[in-house]
Amino acid sequence: MTSDDWAGRALTAVIDRVTVTETEVGNRFPLYADPADGRWKTTGRGSWTGGFWAGLLWLRARRTGDRAHRRAAVECTARLAPWAGADTATRGLIFWYATAPAPDAAEAVALRARAARACLDSYDPGAGVVPWGAALGGPRLLARADAVPGLVPLLAGAGPEGPAVAATHLHRHLDLCLGAEGAGNGGRPRPAWRFDPATGWHPHEDPPPGWSRGEAWLLLAVADALLHPEVAGHRPERLAFAARQLLVRAEVLTGRLVPPNEASRPLGPVDTSAAAITAVALLKLSRARAPRAAACSSRAAAILRRLTEAHLTGPGPDRPAGMLLDGCYDAAKGLAVRHELIWGDFFLALGLAALDDQDDLVDITRV
Q1: Do the beta carbons of residue 227 and residue 206 sit within 8 Å?
Q2: What are the pLDDT digits (tens) for 102-122?
Q3: What's the chain look like in SS3?
Q4: Order of strands across the sheet that contains 192-196
C-alpha cells in the first residue's frame, strides 16, 4: 500500500476488528458495540442483522485466504438457516448479504436459493409486495424502505418468476415512498406504509419521513435493480427516474456527508451506517451508468473518506481499532445512538473494498 492508501489501511482496520469481535461474541451475533469500550450487545439468533456479521466473516475469509476463517464464515451462515421460513421481508437483508460475498461456497449458494424460494412464496399479489411480516413484531401488512434492499437481488434469483416479483415488490415501494402521497416534510420520501385489504395503502407513522437510513436503503435497492437486467427490464425508465428523485429529494449529492438520523432533527444524532450504505449505493449506481454516474462515484469516495477520518477508531488502550462509531440504531427509543453497528461495519468494508479496487476480494456489482 502507498502512503496515501487510506482506503486500504481503513479496510485492514475494519477486517482486523472482525477477528476481535469474533473472539468476543463466539457463536452469538453482534448487534451494536459501546463506543467507550467496544463491547458488543449480542443476540443468539441474529435478528435482521445476522447476515451482515456472516458477510463480514466472508469478506475476511476472502481477504486472508485462511481456511479457519472460511470455516467460521460457513458455520455462521449456517446458523442463519432458521430465518429462511420466518415471516419477514428482512430475509433479504439476512440472506443476501450473508451469502453474496461467497459465490464459490456451495453451502451459502444452497441456503440463498432456499431463502429466495421462501420469500417468493411469501409474495402477496393483493398488496403487491412481500409483506414486512410479523416475525419482528408489529403489523404484518407493511411496506417499509428496509424491506427492499437485499430482497430485490434475492428474488431475482428465485427461478423464472423471481425477477418479475422482485420488480413488482420494488416498484410498489417506490410508488408509495416517492409518489405524490409519499412526500413527507420537505418532500422527503415516506418510508413506511400499511395495507388494508379493503381500503388499500395508508401512510404509517414509524419510521417518519426524513429517516436517513430508509433513504439509503431505497437508493441501494434501486442500484441493485439497475445492476440486474432481468429486473431492470420491467420498468427501466421508472428506475432511472427513481434514482434521480432520491438523489435530489434525499440530498444525497448535496447534503452532509454523514447525515443526521432524521432530517427534521439536524442537530440530533447522525448515522454513519446510513452514510456507509449510501456510499455503496452510489458506487453501484456509478457501475450501472445511472444518472450522474461520475458525481455518484466522487461522492461515494468523499463519504467513505469522511467516515474513515472522522468516525473510525484508531489504536488505543481503551477500545479496539476499526470501530465505525456514531451509528444510530433507534433514536426514538434512545437505543445505541452513537454506537458501532454491525451493518455499518459491513457496508464500510464493502465500500472500501470497491474503492480500493479489491476486485479479487469482492465484486460490488454482485454483492
Answers
A1: no
A2: 988 999 999 999 999 999 999
A3: CCCCCHHHHHHHHHHHHHHHHHHHHCCCEEEEECCCCCCEEEECCCHHHHHHHHHHHHHHHHHHCCHHHHHHHHHHHHCCHHHHHCCCCCHHHHHHHHHCCCCCCHHHHHHHHHHHHHHHHCCECCCCECCCCCCCCCCCCEEEHHHCCCHHHHHHCCCCCHHHHHHHHHHHHHHHHHCHHHECHHHCECCEEEEECCCEEEECCCCCCCEHHHHHHHHHHHHHHHCCHHHHCCCHHHHHHHHHHHHHHCCCCCCCCCCECECCCCCCCECHHHHHHHHHHHHHHHHCCCCCHHHHHHHHHHHHHHHHHHCECCCCCCCCCCCECCECCECCCCECCCEEEHHHHHHHHHHHHHHCCCCCCCCHHHC
A4: 142-144, 192-196, 200-203
For CA atoms 88, 113, 92, 100, the dihedral sign is positive
350 close to 280: Cβ distance less than 8 angstroms: yes
Q: For the beta carbon of residue 365, count every other beta carbon within 10 angstroms.
A: 15
In angstroms, rounded to a whole number, what is the distance separating the alpha carbons of residues 195 and 198? 9
Q: What's the CA gap between 216 and 145, in Å, rounded?
A: 9
Q: Which three cell numbers stand for residue 328?
A: 444510530
What is the distance between the alpha carbons of residues 301 and 25, in angstroms, rounded to a whole number?
A: 31
Q: Which of 338, 227, 211, 209 is nearest to 280 (CA)?
A: 227
Q: Give the pLDDT confidence score for residue 187 in this predicted structure.
A: 87
Burial letters 59-91, b for 16+ CB under 10 A, else e: bbbbbeeeeebbebbbebbebbeebbebebbbb
CA–CA dist 177, 154 (Å, integer): 21
Cell of 128: 403487491
Question: pLDDT by residue (tens digit) across 229-265?
Answer: 999 999 999 999 999 999 999 999 999 999 999 999 9
Q: What is the distance between the alpha carbons of residues 179 and 32, in angstroms, rounded to a whole number? A: 34
- CA separation for the pair 198, 344 (Å, rounded): 39
